[in-house]
Amino acid sequence: MPSSPSPAGATRNPFTQVETAAVGVSVEHLSKNFGSLQVLKDVTFSVEPGEIFVLMGPSGSGKSVLLKHIVGLELPTSGRVTVDGKDASSEATREQVRMALVFQSGALFNSLSVYDNLALYPREHQITDEAGIREKVMHALKILSLDGVDQKSPSDLSGGMKKRVAIARALVMEPQLMLYDEPTSELDPVTSATISEIIATLKQEYHVTTIVVSHDRELALNISDRVGILMDGALISLGPPSDLKAPTDPHIAEFLYPKIDLQHPRFKNLETTP
Ligand SMILES: Nc1ncnc2c1ncn2[C@@H]1O[C@H](COP(=O)(O)OP(=O)(O)O)[C@@H](O)[C@H]1O
Ligand SMILES: [Mg+2]
């Protein structure tokens, strides 16, 4: 099926100078079981080309599993996922649509320099010659304000810099769809804000459709076009970020604005008698 023209228009890829269109994502009645455990329950939503969609939810609610379905690393038990109108699980889709997933761990190779981490994908796919790869890698490092770290090992960098290297590596893939799994986890608030700004800037400048999985409320409030909330495998809320300001659902309120209460029974249960 030919891809339909993107309503958000085409954009010029900063590396290749080729016009590419941002792609849309559609998740339709997606359910996923691992044995007897149902991890995703009839999840339906779509992400428009060029949109920043943030998926929030507590740990274990199924966010990473959902992302893996979009990049074709997991297969639905029922329902389907399409990217640019094509089945996300098919090999052909992954060849036609450039998707880059920034893993929560960063998934960087400490045995390789930052430069070689970024050059890995274009070398493996023989995208261009070594001089062309160098240009792309150095450009991506510059965009992420990582000049001067190309010969370092990722293990020598701070947490925030590692995240930026992981984002730079994704950018070298010249993605039409960027997916981030918990990009601000384990970072301090200022570094988290910087990463949020980077995600928003990359989307604005390169018009890449962006899906962010996160439980960072500030990130969702500040950079998303729309937010979905996943709880226990079900999408219980979908709307603009302004919906997060005064949630009426008590479960969502407790998740977004947890109260610290030392008299709470949860705390009492942890007490041990001497
Ligand atoms: N490959 C797998 N096999 C079995 N269970 C899994 C697998 N991947 C994830 N799960 C389970 O699915 C649930 C959701 O996981 P995940 O999507 O990683 O949650 P999170 O919202 O924290 O990203 C968890 O209970 C997790 O243990
Ligand atoms: Mg996760």
Task: Describe the fold and architecture.
This protein has 274 residues and is of the alpha/beta class. The chain has one domain (23-270): 3-Layer(aba) Sandwich (Rossmann fold). Helices cover 33% and strands 24% of the residues. The chain has 9 helices and 12 strands. The protein has helices at residues 63-70, 91-96, 114-124, 130-143, 159-172, 189-206, 217-223, 250-256, 265-270, and strands at 10-12, 19-21, 25-34, 37-47, 52-56, 78-83, 86-87, 99-102, 177-181, 209-213, 226-231, 234-239. The strands form 3 sheets. The chain has a 6-stranded mixed β-sheet with strand order 8-9-10-5-11-12, with helices on both faces. It has a 4-stranded antiparallel β-sheet with strand order 4-3-6-7, with helices on one face. A hairpin with a 2-residue loop joins strand 3 and strand 4. Mean pLDDT is 87; it is low at 1-9. Bound molecules: adenosine-5'-diphosphate and magnesium ion. The site of adenosine-5'-diphosphate has 11 residues, from strand 4 and helix 1.
Structural topology:
Elements (H helix, E strand, L loop, with lengths): L9 E3 L6 E3 L3 E10 L2 E11 L4 E5 L6 H8 L7 E6 L2 E2 L3 H6 L2 E4 L11 H11 L5 H14 L15 H14 L4 E5 L7 H18 L2 E5 L3 H7 L2 E6 L2 E6 L10 H7 L8 H6 L4
Parallel strand pairs: 5-10, 5-11, 8-9, 9-10
Antiparallel strand pairs: 1-2, 3-4, 3-6, 6-7, 11-12
The site of magnesium ion has 4 residues, from helix 1.
